[in-house]
Amino acid sequence: MSKTVLVLVETVDAYLPLLEQAGYRLIRAPSALLRADAIARHAGEIDAVLTRGPLGLSAAEIEALAKLRIICVIGAGYEQVDLAAAAARGITVTNGAGANAGAVADHAMALLLALLRDIPRADASTRRGEWNRVISPSVSGKRLGIIGLGAVGQAIARRASQGFDMPVSYHSRTPRADVPYTWYDSPLHLADAVDILLVATPGGHGTRHLVDAGVLEALGAEGYLVNIARASVVDTDALVDALRQGGVAGAALDVFDDEPGVPDTLKALSNTVLTPHVAGQSPEAARDTVNLVLRNLQAFFSGEPVLTPVRA
Predict the structure, then answer these.
(1) Which residue among 10, 130, 259, 284 is the active-site one?
(2) What pTM does this model have?
(3) What is the spatial distance between Cα 48 and Cα 8, in angstroms, rounded to a whole number?
(4) Is the dihedral angle over the CA atoms 138, 143, 147, 148 positive or is it negative?
(5) 228 touches 275 (CB < 8 A)
(6) Cβ neighbour number for residue 35 with a 10 Å cutoff
(7) How far, rounded to the nearest angstrom, does the alpha carbon of residue 183 sit from its chain's CA centroid?
(8) Does residue 176 have an active-site annotation?
(9) How far apart are CA 31 and CA 121, in angstroms?
(10) Tens digit of pLDDT for each residue in 177-188?
(11) Strand order in 272-274's β-sheet?
(12) Nearest Cα residue to 234 out of 266, 268, 260, 264
């Protein structure tokens, strides 16, 4: 008998036929209204849920899905999935760790380059017929600090160190023995030691506002912030204040607190580069992400260990 998957995501549609070709029945519900309707109408049929970190799956939804056995999250973050409720039901949770790391790392470096070299403003002024040859900082040799050194953080570190000769340091809960980078025991100490602070850690309660006013002060007036992880890791109000007052030189952001809303205060600043949460999106990343979901589903329903389990 085929298994039914409730699909809450809206970013991998082109590759969902991979699941259908493998025999899975899909119920697509990419909006809040469709989601509520699908759960109400098909609660007794759904074996698996495909979601992403910000969309999550609540305890009430988990309780409503009597047949649910596995939750697959695309991307590394799973902050809005109620892991305790899933564990209480014995429901397996997987994530997409590493599947889109290359795309996110590419975008992170693009943001970093655009920010330091002031590419958006240079492009806009040139299109206006101006010839403003503003001198911008070099990127090569800058000291890069990464908060979070999972698959994405390591992919960024390789690009920065090998491609741009950047000394790389990082903060994570514990130091890693398998990397050649310098570990710092706190975001504050890391920010004090680098020129560019890049956020690549998962969101959630445990990382909320890791980058606060004190960390931004330590980063300093010539320092830059790049966030391709979750907006919740950075105190947005503190960041806006620092950007306005010259406490930091600039910020490049792909994530925001109330997406798709972007604060007007950030839009109005000339020392920001803003993109609409697209770091992890590319045809290649979408394909690899759905392939990983498929492999996890196939392993699970075959009674084998899943590839990327998430622990409560």
Answers:
(1) 259
(2) 0.92
(3) 11
(4) positive
(5) no
(6) 21
(7) 21
(8) no
(9) 35
(10) 999 999 999 999
(11) 182-184, 168-171, 144-147, 196-199, 224-227, 250-253, 272-274
(12) 266
- CA 49/CA 227 separation, integer angstroms: 28
Among 277, 284, 287, 311, which one carries the catalytic annotation? Answer: 277
- CB 118 within 8 Å of CB 134: yes
Catalytic site residue 259?
Answer: yes
- Residue 255, classed as helix, strand or coil, is coil
Q: What mean pLDDT comes out for the span 164-171? A: 98
Q: Interhelix angle for 151-158 vs 101-117, to 10°?
A: 50
Separation of first and last alpha carbons in the chain: 30
d(CA 250, CA 270): 9
Give me the half-sphere count of Cα atoms (radius 13 Å) on the Cβ side of residue 94: 25
pLDDT digits 0-9 by tens, 174-215: 999 999 999 999 999 999 999 999 999 988 889 999 999 999
- Give residue 1's pLDDT band: very low, low, confident or very high (50, 70, 90): low
Length of the chain counted residue by residue: 312
Structure tokens at 106: 């590419």
Model pLDDT for residues 236-254, shown as the tens digit of each residue: 999 999 999 999 999 999 9
* Residue 171 designated active-site: no
- Helices 101-117 and 119-127: crossing angle in degrees, nearest 10, is 60
Catalogue the E-assigned strands of the chain. 4-7, 25-28, 48-52, 70-74, 92-94, 144-147, 168-171, 182-184, 196-199, 224-227, 250-253, 272-274
